[in-house]
Amino acid sequence: SAFIVQVNVLKDKTHAATWFLNTRIPGGRFERMDSIDQKVDATLTIEDEDYVLLLFGKISPQFAFLKGRMKIKGDVLLLQKLNRLVGKILRTREDLDLIFVRDILVNSKIQSGLQSEIVFIEIIQRLARMQNLLPSGDNIRFNIVVNGQQETEWVIGYNEAGNLSMVKHQCRMESNEGKMTPIQVPTKLDIIIDDNDFTSLFYNTNFNLQNAIDSNRVQVTGDLTLVPKIELLF
Amino acid sequence: DGLKCDVLFDVMRS
Predict the structure, then answer these.
(1) Cβ within 8 Å, pair B10-A121
(2) Complex ipTM value
(3) Which of A3, A114, A130, A152 is deepest in the core (most CB within 10 A)?
(4) Which chain A residue's Cα is nearest to B7?
(5) A180, A215 in Cβ contact below 8 A?
(6) How many Å lie between the alpha carbon of B12 and the closest alpha carbon of chain A?
(7) Measured between alpha carbons, how far is A63 from A65 in angstroms, rounded to an integer?
(8) How close B6 gets to chain A, by Cα (Å)?
(9) Cβ distance A36 to A2 under 8 Å?
C-alpha cells in the first residue's frame, strides 16, 4: 500500500524546507516541494541534522520519536515502513562517493552561507571516481577564508591503491569558541583560499589555480609540483 | 541555505 509522508525540515527550530517521500512513484522518491495535491498519510517534523541521521540509519524513526526529536502527525505505524523504504533507497548505496559524503554529513557541520561547502561535496564525488590523483601520503589541506578569517578546513588524501581514502572537514562554527586547531594530519601541500575564489575555480573556466597563485589570490605552501594535479579537481 | 538534507538529495540524484 503506497503512502506519502511529508517531512517538515527545521534549521534551529525554524521551518527551512518541505520534503515529500512519495511511494506512489515506483521505488519511492523524495521530492522537495512546497505542497502536494494528494493526501498525506503522515507529517514528520524534524531538525535537518536529525533528518540526515535518520536517512543514514544512524537513528531510527522510533528512537527520534520517543526522544522527542521528531514529531509525527497521522499514521504512526508508517514509521516502520518508512525506515525500511529509506534503507532501500539510501543505505544500500555503498559507492565510495556516498560513503565520504555520508561521513561529512553525519560527523561534521556544514557552514551555512559558504559556497565552498557545497562545491567541496561535488569535488568529493569527483575525487572518489578519480584514481591515483595523488600518491599515497601526499595529503592536501585547503583552508577556506572569508575576509581573511579562516572558516573551514578540508584535508584530502589517497591510499596506496590509488583511491580516495581520507576526507576530513571542520568549520569554525563547530570549533572551540571559534578557534580552529588544524586537523592533525601531515600534508604535502597547504592552500589558503577565499571562499569566492574557490567557487570561481570550480565554475569559471577562465580562472585556474596557477593564475590564482600567480596573482597572489591564493597562498600555497609545500610541494608546488602538486599544483597541476590539484587543477584536475576544478 | 546550507541544509544537509538538500546536499544529500543532490548527491543521490547525481
Answers:
(1) yes
(2) 0.94
(3) A152
(4) A118
(5) no
(6) 8
(7) 5
(8) 9
(9) no
Select from B1, B7, B14 the Cβ nearest to the Cβ of A105. B7
B5's CB contacts (< 8 A; 6+ apart) are A9, A17, A19, A48, A51, A52, A55
Q: Which of residues 1-14 of B touch A (CB under 8 A)?
A: 1-12, 14
For residue A4, the cross-strand partners are A22
Express each pLDDT in A23-75 by its tens digit. Answer: 888 877 888 999 999 999 999 999 999 999 998 889 988 899 899 999 999 98
Measuring CA to CA, which residue among A128, A180, A122 is closest to residue A159? A128
Name chain B contacts of A118, Cβ cutoff 8 Å: 7
Residue A88 to residues A1, A74, A82, A113, A201: CA-CA distances in angstroms? Answer: 16, 23, 10, 32, 36
| Selected residue of A14, A110, A129 to mutate for chain B interface (largest B Cβ count, 10 A) | A110
The C-alpha cell at A22 is 512519495
Grid coordinates of A168 = 576530513
The DSSP string of A33-78 is: -S--SS--SEEEEEEHHHHHHHHTTSS-HHHHHHTTSEEEEE-TTH
A105, A119, A173: best to mutate for the B interface, most B CBs within 10 A: A105
pLDDT tens-place string over residues A193-233: 999 999 999 998 888 899 899 999 999 999 999 999 999 88
